[in-house]
């Protein structure tokens, strides 16, 4: 099987910065046609202008993907530009801190809408297009589409101040598994990459706010370093490619081993 993305069309949401942008760049470097989608139109325009094949193999779409009409317009814009949709990468990830005991705080609802519902709506719309392509094409390919969700190890960790983010990413993990089963008969694979110790926009912000945070991450990461966004992008490439043709419903963790160890050290004998 091939890891190649050459000639395939991919939508990458949340791609104005951070890991989403790294994924979009990596896919473009691998020969894919890429539609970058995000809310930040100014940043999208600046970033896409720096792609080597700007105007030929890359486009951008700006809009609020929590809105159903915006999602429909994204599908239309992608098909108009590249004729088809082969891959969807849901890389929308918003993180915020909140007091879990504050009944007035709407962080959980906000992040469920941003991180879960936006990805669900885009997944449903893209899957319908992939199914239609599979039915109209004269092909016996094992897979007619691949969907990869970008999630987080926060789904498996308990940090009260990040409760809203943890809940939204845990829900995204379950969406991945449920959609994988639902779409398997239609030959569409659905997987996720859960990132932890990977340099993202959120992680940069946290390290700026807390001087000792970087040292704490390194201490609790067996590989002893923070991963590059491109390393997450390569994991996404594998799941999106034909090389993962028999892989679906899986959450692949890219965190340098951070979730493997207990932060509480055993007492000395």
From TrEMBL:
List, alphabetically, the InterPro entries matched: NAD(P)-bd_dom_sf, SDR_fam
Q: Does the keyword Transport apply?
A: no
The superkingdom of the source organism is: Bacteria
User: Which Gene Ontology terms cover its molecular function?
Assistant: oxidoreductase activity
Q: Name one Pfam family in it.
A: adh_short_C2
Kindly state which keywords UniProt assigns to this record, in alphabetical order. Oxidoreductase
Q: Is Nuclease among this UniProt entry's keywords?
A: no
The UniProt similarity line reads: Belongs to the short-chain dehydrogenases/reductases (SDR) family.
User: Can you say what this protein is called?
Assistant: SDR family oxidoreductase
């Amino acid at each position: 099987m091939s890891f190649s993305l050459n000639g395939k069309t991919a939508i990458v949401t949340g791609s104005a910065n951070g890991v989403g942008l790294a994924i979009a760049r990596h896919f473009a470097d691998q020969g894919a046609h890429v539609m970058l989608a995000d809310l930040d139109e100014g940043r999208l325009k600046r970033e896409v202008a720096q792609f080597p094949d700007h105007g030929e193999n890359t486009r951008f779409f700006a809009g609020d993907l929590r809105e159903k009409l915006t999602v429909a317009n994204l599908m239309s814009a992608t098909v108009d530009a590249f004729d088809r949709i082969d891959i969807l990468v849901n890389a929308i990830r918003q993180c915020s801190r909140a007091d879990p005991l504050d009944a007035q705080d709407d962080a959980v609802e906000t992040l469920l809408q941003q991180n879960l519902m936006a990805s669900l709506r885009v997944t449903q719309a893209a899957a319908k297009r992939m199914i239609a392509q599979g039915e109209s094409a004269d092909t016996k390919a094992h897979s007619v589409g691949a969907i990869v969700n970008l999630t987080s190890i926060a789904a498996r960790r308990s940090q009260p101040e990040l409760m809203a983010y943890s809940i939204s990413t845990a829900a995204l993990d379950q969406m991945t598994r449920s959609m994988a089963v639902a779409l398997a008969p239609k030959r569409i694979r659905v997987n996720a990459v859960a990132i932890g110790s990977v340099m993202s926009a959120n992680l940069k912000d946290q390290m700026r706010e807390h001087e000792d945070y970087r040292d704490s991450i390194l201490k609790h990461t067996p590989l002893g370093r923070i991963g590059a966004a491109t390393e997450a992008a390569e994991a996404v490439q594998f799941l999106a490619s034909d090389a993962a043709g028999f892989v679906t419903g899986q959450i692949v963790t890219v965190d340098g081993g951070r979730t493997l160890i207990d932060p509480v050290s055993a007492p000395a004998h």
